[in-house]
Amino acid sequence: MDKIRVPRAGLGRPRRRPDSLSADKAYSNRTIRAYLRRRGIRHVILEKKDHKAARLRRGSDGGRPPGFDKERYKKRKTVERAINKLKAHRAVATRYEKRAYIFLGTVTVAALVIWRRCRFPQPGSRPRDRRCLCRA
User: Fold this and answer.
1) Same domain, yes or no: 13 and 53
2) Which of 53, 59, 120, 127 is the most buried (most CB within 10 A)?
3) How far is Cα of residue 110 from the mean position of the Cα atoms in its chain?
4) Which residues constitute the domain of residue 18?
């Protein structure tokens, strides 16, 4: 968590404190939640079922459930799906390239292929193809 860097639009070094953070269940633990609260970072992290059951089992000593915004979590899932679509391209998933600028080019080409399939579907295909991320 200390390695978080949010690039600035203009000049200047990157910020170390993001406005908000969205994560999946793997990051649902007391340590991470306490760290984010201490730094004043809003977060949307789904609570694990066993954590919820343990909290409910303790009754009033279990504390309040962590806040959860479903709409922001849906946006996280959209980003997750986009990353999975990029990883469907073998060169992106395996990262054979050693240099960052070559890997960036590989990711860019994969993103352009995904975009092209979405915007200009093949003749005879359904208008809203499963490969497409946009809302046609």
Assistant:
1) yes
2) 53
3) 18
4) 1-68
